[in-house]
Amino acid sequence: MLDRYSLIVGLDAEYVSASELPNPSADMLARQCPTCTRKGPDIHCEKRTCHPVKNIVLSHQLSYRTPNNPATRDHIVYTEGRTRRPYFSHMIGGVIEDARAAGMISEADICNDAINIIVAAHFSRAELATFADFNKLKKRAQNVRGTYATINHRDGIRVAYRMPGVGRVNIRVRLLDTMLLAPGRAPLAALGDWMGVEKLSMPPVIDEQGQRVPAIRRMDLCLQQHPAPFEAYALRDAVIARDWIFEVATLADAWGLETMPATVASMGIEKIRSCISDCDLDPLRFCGWQKPPREQKTMLPAVGDIKTLTADCFHGGLNIACEIGVHDGDITDLDLKGAYTSAMAALRPADWDAIQYTKDVDTLARHDALTFARAEFEFPPDTRFPCLPVANGGYGLCYPLSGETCCCGPELKLAVQMGARITVKHGVYVPWAGTARPLVDFAKFINHWRARFPKGTHPGLHALVKEVGNSGYGKFAQAVAGWKTNPVTARVFDTRNGTYQDMPESGISCAPYAAYITSIVRATLAEAVAGLPAHVTMMSATTDGFLSDATLAEAKAATSGAIGTWFAELRGMVDPNGDTETLEVKHRAQRVLVVKTRGGMALFVEDETNVFIARAGHKIPHWDRTKPKIEEAHAWEEIIRNREYGDVMTRKSLVSLPKQYRLGCDLIDETRDVASNLDFDFKRMPVDVRDYDGIIRFGTAPFATVEDCLHWRRAWDEYRHKAEAVLKSADDWLRFHGWMMDGQPGGVDLKRTQFERAVLAAFAHRIPGFDIKYPDAVKLLDGCGVAGITTRTLDNIRRRTEQPQPRAIAMTSTDLALGGNLVTALPLNALKSVLL
Questions:
Q1: Of the four listed, 11, 348, 419, 645, which is most buried by Cβ atoms within 10 Å?
Q2: Chain-centre distance of CA 83, in angstroms?
Q3: Sign of CA dihedral 702, 707, 708, 714
Q4: pTM over 0.90
């Protein structure tokens, strides 16, 4: 696989970030705003005309070898001053010249312009920006998941170099980013550990103030104070990047892949297409495409006719929070084993020429058929966990008791089993064209290689193979959301012309298959959740697993329905040993806190390997990742318990690729404040709200319709901003709920409870029992702890509201105290008159 390349080069750069320097100089700014020009440069200035662009580049490290000879060459090239950076083309030319002198490249290859090399860097966006010709390089490489790479050999970066004694030499560079070839975008240290190449550490350095600081923050001082450790550390990064290319290439060769992959996902696509071809099937037609000779590929006409409906049936995972608050007991986090790879086993070649249109529920409500429907539904009112997804106006998916859905056969079948009434408005049935299951072969292949690389002895390759398997489903779904009735089009930045483009489909994009796979996983999980006994506390479900206090026996019984049994058969098809077990225990905890969908954590565990944290999209600023995970969980608990409206989390991130491209700047840090939102997301209706262990706790019930769901969610968003509120206690809920029961009135003080507003209205209108003069009422209220009331306040309330009706339906703890104080000064019947 690597034989077509003359050299494999590992590249790394060492630099000091501008944000780490105590006194940044003016030449570190490409442009300065008037303030920075007058007062001196500020690297944190956020004005559009002022951007920090230059880090201090110290050195470039290169480690290279040929594909067939383990002998290596290592070099460090130091920069000459802050602004005199080397050119990428000159550095690559120098590598070729050195390799020629060392006999690593033949004279014939040089003279015939047959020099093709791979340059590998870990997060290449950082390295490329340190060269003087970055503004040219950025247009020749491609944007791949926020970094630079060249997808294939033909798209390589062409470098012209004038070599002494030879003349002009043309070099084609294939740029690869090892981060894109690492499972989970693993850091370089992890790659080194997996290959037995330790990523070195450096001693701390003394900064200008005499303080000891980590060397990684001030590599310039490390170079001055510890030159030998600096060189060893710097070169090691280039060595690891180079060796990981060989590691991946060896695996790809063993798999029979034809070209060196650029990403983990590209390995999955090529292997899937290979498995389809091995079943004597055309990979293009299998996915609903065709490619006439000398033409672009196009969607088959019959598939194009159902593209929108099938795309509308494509949804994300089943994600709901059902029990909010702190929970104690034997709590288990269970996952469906290999959910998406198992679901892909259901795919067979579809007979796209025999598509049928039908409204017959019996034809469409099948788990083992490729069926799609737009349908109205109504579940029995006592259904705890309805299973049909409805788009929730930008808030994700909602699972109401009634409404209209677009879904596939597995979920329709489950809904019928749960007693739902289904009325199909538009349905499609696609028969299978054969019995071959190429994705079973793919999944077996992945599982076989995972078994060959046990997690304990080969963790890196085990994780890599696993990610290749998981990436297959994602590539079936790439760009599918853009084909919906209401398209959700992903946009990607094209470095070739500096513009945003719609994300293209992958080599296996297929809306019917993507919708069907996700439907299988949602239906299997929904059946398990709905099948749990009533006494079980079902806390949350997330994509392919659920958190509850069910015993393992109860959970297994819940997965023994028609959908679960069929999923077990699919699991048996792909498991190397034919094992049909579908559940696996991911974590066990004795105390957990659930705050919202995808937001929860274990607070007490008997074994710290069982700690889990779902951060709801947030990060604790400046958290030390070396600390035990249970400490982070407790830190999150403190944040959740003590949060206030307007809290922000400072997030430090790297400049985006489009912004870096536009400015031509180095890889710099950007700091921004992100509003914290750790409140319940109202995908279900809170019930039985109370406080437990000093924080809100409640169960939930499904909304009747998606309109109800949207109404409550939008109302909460409006209320929390106007009242500057968070939802962390039962009193917070009662204040919000009282406002909702009042009909969401405008122009009222939302920081006051429903009972307080009713009392103020009673005084303002002087209803019986409250008929005292305004000054006396103000004095009484102030004595009872209701501050901020004046006679003008009462007069405004009188003019703004009609004669008050009894509206307070519940009392918070502060209301009870207020009522206790008022009852000593007012008739009891008067107070009763403002309560329901």
A1: 11
A2: 38
A3: positive
A4: no
